[in-house]
């Protein structure tokens, strides 16, 4: 009886505290499994595109960090990823979109990374680069152009159709004029040690992607033995399908055993 009384007393105290601090609905239960998620953006975009996904994950009790890698070189992007992972407490699900997939393929070897999630991303094998995947089965877009400084851009007039066809026009317009170029080094760097070979992996294929050929996305997902879902989305599937993206990330977080 004493044990039951103690539990009831503690529960009553917690409820009273939550009422004093705010509505009980504001108290978010911690997720089971892995609690930390690192979101990594791809080329021509920045971390702000993850906003909807990040908010949903935080609502579900996850601790989220959004990497703002500069895309000036592959080595520099790896340095940023390592710093972000070092700063997180406990095991992490690392998530990459597009070129961000190349980043997490190597950064995923960090001891804190327990699982990888690719969202329409480059899950590269040893000796491959983003460029080699694009050239093997070309994407639909022809709007990717280099400048005299060795950086690559998407022509603004083609940005919406080729990169972000299923987000509101105002959003794709702003993305076009605020795009982050990617260096030739980052785009052509060859991966040496793919983390997906030793860690559990998930993949979201965007079936209407005009930036990475969906054929290649399916191929990369299959060889990584990734648990795969497919959505009828443009390249920015994480923006047009945030709920589906979160569901996949949370599946990785709740079903992966973390030895940390």
What does it look like?
It contains eleven helices and nine strands. The protein is globular and about 45 Å long. By secondary structure, the protein is of the alpha/beta class. The strands form two sheets. The chain has a six-stranded parallel β-sheet with strand order 2-1-3-4-8-9, with helices on both faces. The chain has helices spanning 2-21, 51-59, 74-87, 99-107, 130-136, 156-163, 169-177, 184-188, 214-223, 237-240, 242-255, and strands at residues 36-40, 63-67, 92-98, 113-121, 144-146, 151-154, 182-183, 201-206, 227-231.
Key features?
260 residues, alpha/beta, 3-stranded antiparallel β-sheet, globular
Strand content: 15-25%
The total count of helices amounts to 11
Evaluate the radius of gyration.
20 Å
Major sheet, described briefly?
6 strands, parallel
Oligomer: single chain
Which series of helices and strands comes N to C?
Answer: HEHEHEHEHEEHHEHEHEHH
Percent of residues in helices: 40-55%
Helix/sheet category: alpha/beta
Question: What would the average pLDDT be, to the nearest integer?
Answer: 89
Low-confidence stretches: 1-27
Strand order of the largest sheet: 2-1-3-4-8-9
Q: How many beta-strand elements?
A: 9
Calculate the terminal CA-CA distance, rounded to whole Å: 37 Å
Shape: globular
